[in-house]
Automatic annotation (TrEMBL):
GO CC annotations, alphabetized: cytosol
Catalytic activity of the protein: cytidine(32) in tRNA + S-adenosyl-L-methionine = 2'-O-methylcytidine(32) in tRNA + S-adenosyl-L-homocysteine + H(+); uridine(32) in tRNA + S-adenosyl-L-methionine = 2'-O-methyluridine(32) in tRNA + S-adenosyl-L-homocysteine + H(+)
Ranges of residues in domain tRNA/rRNA methyltransferase SpoU type: 11-161
Domain of life per record: Bacteria
Cellular compartments annotated: Cytoplasm
Protein name (record): tRNA (cytidine/uridine-2'-O-)-methyltransferase TrmJ
UniProt organism field: Paramagnetospirillum marisnigri
Amino acid sequence: MSDAAPAPGPAIILVRPQLAENMGTAARAMLNCGLTDLRIVAPRTSPLDERAIAAASGADRLLLGAKVVETTAEAVADLHRVWCTTGRDRYMVKPVDTPRQAAAAMRAVEAEGMRCGVLFGPERTGLENDDVAIADTVLTVPLNPDYCSLNLAQAVLLVSYEWFQMEAASTLPAMTKGAEGPASKEKLLTFFNHLERELDECGFLRIPDKRPTMIRNIRNMFQRAGLTGQEIQTLHGIVHELVTYRHKKGGA
């Protein structure tokens, strides 16, 4: 018998949920499939609301242990790979997975000792573009094109179920990464802030109407690269040296 601890599974991240009942039913869907890492971004009501507890139907321990934060960036900071659920074209260049494909990839990520998570948007509007830009991969459920409306708990259950059914051993091809795996989202977002600050300073992002789209495009380009922590440090150094050179040249 193996002494290895079971994989913790992906973090389920509810972004700005509107209804207490939906947080409860999402927790219930998670626990049915063995998932316990629930994170909630800026909920309209408390996850400990009596309606959420009642809807959890015995899975309220997930609500009691949920990590509640104010921003999506905080919710994904310790993760290495993030999927986002959306049924709309966001006009961003990102790979797209079905829940089954995502489950296989999540198992492979966990087999390498890394953490992953899935973003689920508000019930009425779905994720904002800035939330989608943080993710590495879009997760879309292939359903009847004439009617493909899912509530929050149904979406959580579909993803959780596919993860639960997927065998832990994965045969997905792996990329040699040396001693260090992909950087955490916290390191990546810190680099983005550094780069965008300097791009503002040099005037590259000077057109207000175009700035949000340009920033999302830049972030998506770097995220597709699967950067390691060491590579992030190298990029910080590159930006720093370019800025230093520009200041020296300007003062010459």
